[in-house]
């Protein structure tokens, strides 16, 4: 059995560390990723500028807003998504705790994760693409999506069941 090693982890308990690990610009890209730049905050008060990523209470809370379209939050750390040995694999996991920030809100219709991101607007000369893992059950994907590699299924993205 191969020993698993963590390349990145964040429990969102250290609010000072939040802006050191996260950004609205993909490392190496030429500007904020998204039709509206995500504001990073650790203040529980409603952010003045939306969309926002809030590190609070040991959770990352994503607050929708701004122009319609994709908004990306990225780690500042870059990763080589190639396994160390041919035939092995890399695992990524996220624990989605809820589909809304406040109880009175309508749940998010779509929650997606991107991995191996390197260029938001396809202006880079670096070959390759961004990998989107999308929980959208409508079958409609963002403009510019060239092909779907895998579908999440009929249930879409569901919150992690708390014990």
How would you characterize this protein structure?
With 163 residues, the protein is mostly beta strands. It has one helix at 15-21; strands spanning 22-23, 39-41, 52-56, 59-63, 74-75, 112-115, 131-134. The strands form 3 sheets. The protein has a 3-stranded mixed β-sheet with strand order 2-3-4. It has a two-stranded antiparallel sheet with strand order 1-5.
Concise structural overview:
It contains 1 helix and 7 strands.
C-alpha termini separation: 29 Å
Q: What integer value in Å does the Rg equal? A: 16 Å
Largest sheet: 3 strands, mixed
Structural class: mainly beta
Shape: globular
Sequence-ordered SSE layout with sheet pairings:
Layout: H1 15-21, E1 22-23, E2 39-41, E3 52-56, E4 59-63, E5 74-75, E6 112-115, E7 131-134
Parallel strand pairs: 2-3
Antiparallel strand pairs: 1-5, 3-4, 6-7
Supply the key terms.
three-stranded mixed beta sheet; globular; 163 residues; mainly beta; 7 strands
């Amino acid at each position: 059995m191969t020993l698993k090693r963590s390349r990145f982890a964040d429990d969102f308990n250290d609010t000072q560390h939040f802006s050191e690990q996260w950004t609205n610009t993909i490392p190496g890209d030429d500007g904020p990723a998204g039709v509206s730049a995500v504001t990073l905050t650790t203040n529980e008060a409603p952010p003045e500028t939306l969309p926002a990523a809030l590190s609070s209470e040991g959770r990352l809370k994503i607050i929708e807003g701004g122009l319609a379209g994709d908004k990306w939050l990225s780690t500042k750390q870059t990763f080589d998504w190639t396994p160390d040995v041919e035939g092995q694999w890399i695992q990524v996991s996220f624990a989605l705790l809820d589909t809304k920030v406040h109880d009175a809100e309508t749940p998010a219709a779509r929650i997606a994760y991107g991995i191996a991101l390197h260029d938001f607007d396809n202006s880079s000369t670096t070959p390759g693409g961004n990998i989107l893992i999308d929980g959208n059950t409508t079958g409609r994907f963002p403009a510019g999506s060239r092909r779907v590699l895998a579908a999440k299924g009929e249930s879409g993205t569901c919150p992690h069941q708390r014990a």
